[in-house]
């Protein structure tokens, strides 16, 4: 059946041949105009007078001037709550059929983010874009005949007030086209298993039945699934059971922190392709092998704005100040951190998604995820972003010959001397760790990477304290908080209250 793979690969190359190059800046203008036009008769559109905005000579500028920033709490309290009370045409025409339950890295309750049919279609189109981009990675024809393991949240969606609820990965998987179902693993029956441990155990038991060519999912949970398969079959690496595994599509978080631990489970190299699927939409996907940056989906139901990620624009809770300026795609610069703002076909407007990004190639609209607005540590002026922390972890991995896939940090005063310290918990299986030496190395790495941190260390930040624990503790913590599998990401930065709960959990 090799000819099938050749046909599919040929179709991908043909699609690229006939498709035109996207003008990202012009596409964004068109997307914004389309969003405003479709929503002008909604409650939100009337309130903010979308009709007048559409009549202006500079729609992007007027849009940014007339609408405030929203985060989930702000837009939910003012608008989205009406959807749960039976109202229609609130921030988007009609009433959504789905709500994405954001697993979230902060907050005690799940966010309920509307997912419209238009968003389902936008996600589908972005997925097709990813498939067609595979031609750039020069994969063999037989790759296109192999199974694809998509490990997300359960597809057994819950009915609530005439709509269905679940994590976005579960909603997306429940809407896969029929032609794809033959390739999709673990299959609909296994994907519906709500208990994550039971679902992974079932995958391990059925692993021999499948010829997996590609994996897709959050790195930490993919790793745990692979470890379970390896243990169940008493293997040295995953390629002993899935010899044709060639591609891994990561998503939602930077792959860098997991690269070393992920590769340790492989028998041979695989192509890693980064994607960026959030509860609010399919943001970006990697389209070239020469870079691990991802291209924004600029022509597909999402309008982007970018706020310079500077301390003066960020409130303590990670929200934006009213004075924070926004830039369009035409105004951004490379190698600068920006808080990402989106407006979407699901009725999110000037919405702070909570991620920070930087552009690696403005013309191509290619970005990297650099962190979270809430995970920006600026106690006593240290100004540490997640990308700086991740980079320090990579240095520690090299220096101490270990893997550190997980970590968390809190800045607080010591009970002993009343001074501020950074308290780190590192997930590593290193034997007999010299925590003092690791702390010193971490401190030096951060001084070298961040001048603001170096200044803080010479003044109000007294020092660094490190505890090394098993990575499993981090996964158990998420399970303890009923956040296991799916789109779940570990909190990199905790406030003192959350950190106390964390330390109590670790020590008990």
Automatic annotation (TrEMBL):
InterPro entries: GH3, GH3_C, GH3_M. Signal peptide: none annotated. Transmembrane segments: none annotated. Residues 389-497 form the GH3 C-terminal domain. Residues 298-362 form the GH3 middle domain. This is GH3 auxin-responsive promoter family protein. It comes from Winogradskyella poriferorum.
